[in-house]
Amino acid sequence: MTTRPTLVFVPGAWHSADTWNKVTAELEPQDYKTICTTHPSTLSDPTKGISDDIEEVRKAIFAEVIQGRDVVVVVHSYGGMVGPSAIKGLTEATIERPGCVIGIAMMATGYCVTGVGFLEGIGGNPPPFWKADTEKGYARLIVDTRELFYHDLPEEEGNYWVSRLLNHSLKSLTDSGDQVYSGWKDVPTRYLITTDDRTFPTEVQLGIAEGAKKQGGDVVVEQIHTSHSPMLSKPKETAEFIVRAVENFTK
């Protein structure tokens, strides 16, 4: 039986769980158990909010730690608000729950603030690549999404991933931060900054990492020259980053 921690993967907004498939294909032969979660907010139900996404990830984590398995949470983009919030109270083992969350591997994302929702955290207005469709209840992407997310993939593959983008509920991005928790303060993190990112500027990511360090976070930064989707354009290197994170967390 493996003694490696279980890896629980949390995708970004609009993205399906299978965006992690290339990375899990690298990790599973190394005896890692991988679990890829799906956000309820991406299942074409505009009533689902961030609390539903957090609970979905929390259920996946809890199912592992209750069996005595430690967990590393791997998050991308919007998942960086969901994953850390989901680990609240699960970072120390107990008699009833002998496993625990030991760290978070983060990429192209932010360090969330307890009590602060997504839109509030970025200044209150949507970024220029999406708009609020209040009639149908979704956050609508309004730019060339292949260029936005996948510009370093071959055109055909980039178009495939564009076709896989999902409706994402507006509610999850405009909810209050009642359920948001800075779980990254409770465990060490490794942060993979994407240096060819047309969604989330590199300088913003660097500033976020420095801010987290100043707040007392155990933050180790790495960089990778990719678009916003390193798990797709450089899956081997992304998997190697995750392995290094696990080694760091299990010293």
UniProtKB/TrEMBL annotation:
Cross-referenced Gene3D superfamilies: alpha/beta hydrolase
Transmembrane segments: none
UniProt xrefs under Pfam families: Abhydrolase_6
InterPro entries in the record: AB_hydrolase_1, AB_hydrolase_fold, Sec-Metab_Biosynth_Hydrolase
Signal peptide positions on this chain: none
Ranges of residues in domain AB hydrolase-1: 7-240
PANTHER family for the chain: AB HYDROLASE-1 DOMAIN-CONTAINING PROTEIN, AB HYDROLASE-1 DOMAIN-CONTAINING PROTEIN-RELATED
Entry protein name: AB hydrolase-1 domain-containing protein
